[in-house]
């Protein structure tokens, strides 16, 4: 399966050197080759959280890293939105948010089975269409 998908928690942990997940996240990315895919929904949420908690310079660093090609920005199609809506409905009792549902939709479309995240609770619940379960990193 090509590449890995990063969620908001991964981008935040990478940006915050004091976060307990910082070192494991950086190490996980250094060990993995291939595309580091960031859905546009994740980038928006990560920019908000990083800007709010770490400041505007940290937010700009994330944007510039994306511009430099450190992350491959992936848009959302209407089919992705439809699939995200179906995921939200299926997992309504688990309080899944749109960003996580959009990651599932993009992962299925791109046939990516690896998710870089700290969110074990939600991503272990998902049963994607293209694989038995997501491999969660680190």
- Amino- and carboxy-terminal Cα gap: 17 Å
Percentage of residues in DSSP E strands:
5-15%
Helix content: 40-55%
Order of helices and strands: EHHEHHEHHEHE
Helix count, DSSP H or I runs of 4 or more residues = 7
The CATH homologous superfamily is called 5'-nuclease
Number of strands: 5
CATH topology: Rossmann fold
Using only CA atoms, what is the Rg? 14 Å
Give the biggest sheet: 5 strands, parallel
Task: Considering the chains and any ligands shown, give keywords for the structure.
5-stranded parallel sheet, 5 strands, Rossmann fold, 138 residues, alpha/beta, globular, 7 helices, 54% helix
Write up this protein.
- This protein is an alpha/beta fold and 138 residues long.
- It has one domain (4-137): 3-Layer(aba) Sandwich (Rossmann fold).
- The chain is built from seven helices and five strands.
- It has helices at 8-15, 22-31, 40-54, 56-67, 78-90, 98-110, 120-123, and strands at residues 4-6, 36-39, 72-74, 114-116, 135-137.
- The protein has a five-stranded parallel sheet with strand order 3-2-1-4-5.
- Strand 4 (114-116), helix 7 and strand 5 form a beta-alpha-beta unit.
- The protein is globular.
